[in-house]
UniProtKB/TrEMBL annotation:
Annotated keywords: Coiled coil
Name of the gene: Utrn_1
Annotated protein name in UniProt: UTRO protein
Naturally occurring in which organism (per UniProt): Donacobius atricapilla
Phylogenetic placement of the source organism: Eukaryota, Metazoa, Chordata, Craniata, Vertebrata
Residue stretches in coiled coil: 3-64
Record InterPro entries: Spectrin/alpha-actinin, Spectrin_repeat
């Protein structure tokens, strides 16, 4: 009777494993939204817990069969053979479910990381757009133009590491068919805005550099002219002080 019950327990265990495999491993998932992906992750976590909880039952079943085989070898040997098959299938099921759970958790982590990098770069683009707009109505002063140019250049020195991460993470998920439509749309919007603002910022940078160069050249010319006028003023003042007649002066002083 005990052998019959143990045989029944083995059959039930094998049936449960078959159902678990069909439900958790053979079902095709399509992750077209973050909600679907998140639900799949949670489901696989529950599946892993469910399978691992059966470990106690498997151990009890194993101990009972080995004890029976020791006491009644004739009845227990067949059960040991069946047990070994069940144990092998159970270990395989555990490994596959753990593997799939780990994979889905990695995919979810990849998605969250992509969103974080997009948030960082979007904040940078907002800052760049603000700096570009600030250069639109500058006072005609050298200091103001110089400050605006330095401010814009400091933002443009932003490293490209985050954009590289966005491209690689996005491509990894798209290649796996994970949230491909959503990610493609997000990347398209981000890249279009990045290209537009980058070109505008570089164009504005060149304009400010040219404006600054022109202002510096003009200031230099004015300074030279001012110094020349100052020298002439002092020379004419000395002539007047000495009461020199105009016709006694050099031609240029007259």
């Amino acid at each position: 009777e005990k052998a019959v019950n143990l045989k029944k327990d083995l059959a039930e265990m094998q049936e449960w494993m078959t159902q678990a495999e069909e439900e958790y491993l053979e079902k095709d998932f399509e992750y077209k939204s973050p909600e679907e992906l998140e639900n799949a992750v949670e489901e696989m976590k529950r599946a892993k817990e469910d399978v691992l909880q059966k470990e106690v039952r498997v151990k009890i079943l194993k101990d009972n069969i080995k004890m029976l085989a020791t006491k009644v070898p004739s009845s227990g040997q067949d059960l040991v053979t069946e047990l070994n098959v069940v144990l092998e299938n159970y270990q395989l099921l555990c490994n596959r479910i753990r593997g799939k759970c780990h994979t889905l958790e990695e995919v979810w982590s990849c998605w969250i990381e992509l969103l974080q990098y997009l948030d960082l770069e979007t904040a940078w683009l907002n800052n760049l757009e603000e700096r570009v707009q600030m250069t639109g109505n500058l006072p005609d002063k050298l200091d103001a133009v110089n400050d605006a140019l330095e401010s814009l250049e400091s933002v443009l020195r932003h490293p490209a590491d985050n954009r590289t991460q966005i491209r690689e993470l996005g491509q990894t998920l798209i290649d796996g068919g994970i949230l491909d439509d959503i990610i493609s749309e997000k990347l398209e919007v981000f890249n279009a805005r990045y290209e537009e603002l980058s070109h505008l910022a570089v164009s504005r940078q060149i304009t400010l550099e040219q404006q600054l160069q022109t202002m510096r050249e003009t200031n230099h010319m004015l300074q030279v002219l001012q110094e020349s006028l100052g020298d002439l003023d002092r020379q004419l003042t000395s002539y007047l002080t000495d009461r020199i007649d105009a016709f006694q002066m050099p031609q240029e002083a007259q």
